[in-house]
Design brief:
The protein is α+β, with helices and mostly antiparallel strands. It has 3 helices and 3 strands; from the N terminus they run βααββα. Pfam families: HTH_17.
Length: 63
């Protein structure tokens, strides 16, 4: 299975944007974060996912 990256102009996505881009629910996303499979960072009150981290997760899931 070939994984083609989703073109992003942003370098980081909010949780909502990540869920929409990768068709995941918020609860699944937070489970991935809690399990240490998806790394996030916080700026102010916003939790963000680096696009590189999102692509890494998808590649691991497809392997």
């Amino acid at each position: 299975m070939t994984v083609s990256p989703i073109p992003h102009t942003k370098r980081a996505l909010t949780i909502r944007e990540f869920c929409a881009a990768y068709s995941l629910s918020r609860s699944t996303t937070y489970k991935l974060i809690s399990a240490g499979k998806l790394h996030t960072f916080t700026i102010g009150r916003r939790r963000l996912v680096a696009v590189e981290e999102a692509e890494k997760l998808i590649k691991l899931a497809a392997a």
